[in-house]
């Protein structure tokens, strides 16, 4: 018998680290690159993203990013916005360098 998934939880249920991983995944970073940015292993990043998928009621990181982006105005916080700005700036400097 097929087991039903629990209903999705709101994006506000995500931890700060899960939100950071989703923000960076939305920018196209791999788990390895996200890990390098956050000082974590790629496997840990995969775990954060898998848990975010479970909480959001989706199967893939792409779906999680889309669901999170749709809810972002409700859950955006200064730390996540600052992270995205910091990463964008460092990626631009690396490309120019």
SSE order, one letter for each helix or strand: HHHHH
Under CATH, the homologous superfamily reads Winged helix-like DNA-binding domain superfamily/Winged helix DNA-binding domain
Form type:
globular
CATH topology annotation? Arc Repressor Mutant, subunit A
Helix content: over 70%
What is the highest CATH level, the class? Mainly Alpha
Count of discrete structural domains: 1
Biggest sheet features: none
Mean pLDDT comes to 81
Strand content: under 5%
Helix/strand/pairing category: mainly alpha
**Poorly predicted segments:** none
Oligomer: single chain
| Extended strand count | 0
The helix count comes to: 5
Please give the structural blueprint:
Elements: H1 16-26, H2 31-38, H3 42-56, H4 61-75, H5 78-96
Helix pairs in contact: 1-3, 1-4, 1-5, 2-3, 3-4
In short:
With 97 residues, the chain is mainly α. 70% of the residues lie in helices and 0% in strands.
Distinctive features:
single chain; 97 residues; mainly alpha; Arc Repressor Mutant, subunit A; 5 helices
Write a structural description.
This protein is mostly helical and 97 residues long. The protein has one domain: Arc Repressor Mutant, subunit A, CATH 1.10.10. Helices cover 70% and strands 0% of the residues. The chain is globular. 24% of the residues are buried. The model has no long low-confidence stretch (mean pLDDT 81).
């Amino acid at each position: 018998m097929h087991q039903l998934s629990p209903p999705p939880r709101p994006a506000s249920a995500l931890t700060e680290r899960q939100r950071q991983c989703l923000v960076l995944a939305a920018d196209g970073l791999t788990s390895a690159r996200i890990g390098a940015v956050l000082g974590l292993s790629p496997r840990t990043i995969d775990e954060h993203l898998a848990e975010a998928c479970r909480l959001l009621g989706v199967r893939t990181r792409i779906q999680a990013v889309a669901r999170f982006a749709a809810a972002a105005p409700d859950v955006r916080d200064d730390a996540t916005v600052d992270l995205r700005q910091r990463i964008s700036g460092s990626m631009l400097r690396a490309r120019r360098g």
